[in-house]
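Q: I have 404 residues here and want to know how they pack in 3D. Can you give me a structure?
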Amino acid sequence: MNSKIYSQLSVMMFLQLFVWGAWFVTLGNYLANIGFSATDIGTAYLTNNIGAIIAPLFVGLIADRFFPAEKVMALLHLIGAAVLYYVSDLESSGAIIVGLLIYNACYMPTLALANAVSFHQMNAPEEQFPKIRVWGTIGWIAAGLSITFLLGSQFDNVEATTIPMKMGAIGSVLLSLYCITLPSTPPKSKGRKVSIGELFGSQSFALLKDKPFAIFAACSLLISIPLAFYYTFANLFLNELGMVGAASKMTIGQVSEVFFMALMPFFFRRLGVKWMLLVGMLAWVVRYALFSAGDMDSLSWMIYGGIILHGVCYDFFFVTGQVYVDKKASAEIRSSAQSFITLLTYGFGLAIGTMLSGRVIDALTTDGVRDWSTIWMIPGIFAAVIAVIFFFTFNENEKAKEVD
């Protein structure tokens, strides 16, 4: 991969995650500001999970068989830009949720397409892809900083407005135009019959006969449920707590993610898969405990500590899980296995958690005041129970050096 292609793919990945980070982080705060209940906010975020569930179907049946990936990306981002901008001017909860569902049905397949465009240009993806993917994290960070320091200097209480959504729509237009310039990535399954079951990872079901993998899959699904509390309501919580510029300060978590990503080979050698996954699960328990006990006065370090833990929470669980799946699955079903785990976590697990979190928060809201201390205890206890179950049931003899 030459320097030109590296630059092209890096810019693509930067814009891809910039668009997502622009609207996703602050959406809950805006919806609460216009009168949405926590349940309705959860439903709005659920559209993102539904998009993740249908993405393999769209990519596998359309993009992989008929059209170049970069052209499909260009069209989806252009449609998505129009839909997201239109949604930003809506006021009815039903109309906003339907609009977000259409938008996420356009956006979520582009995550897989961006990866496909990247991998098609690589001859050593295990070395080259992380160098490309890190620019996506930088794009997410740039979105948060732009909301606070660029838009926040021009508009009051910008995180509770539709302005971040409009910024995401503009970014999506730019990305759509940029996709046209990307290297060609022809459909990889053109002329080949592909079953719907295969698109959702059915080829990997045989791995469930292996007890450690079955336990890993079950715990991955279950641990994703409490994780949704953070993704859906952290920005609203931080704003109600009185944090100034919450969107930018939340990007500290992405900086932490980059830092721990670089250290993962070190930890793999010394901890191994089981302890890496367990540390990731326990990091979520600690994060929620810190959020439950912290404030923006003398205990503000707890709040910032919970944000900084994002690198451990994400890398040690999600990235380690992807590595584990890659090593457990044979080359013939590796892609299918990754699709299956992604469907369990980003699809069903976070979807269940998103629906549950809104109902929990509504139940712990009195006269418009949310009992955040108790709210964060619930997913923390849930995650702790899953971690204990995982510790006593998962026994994989694979050593860290075998996963490097």
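Q: Anything worth noting?
A: The chain is about 75% helix and 0% strand. Residues 196-404 form a domain with the Growth Hormone; Chain: A; fold (CATH 1.20.1250.20).
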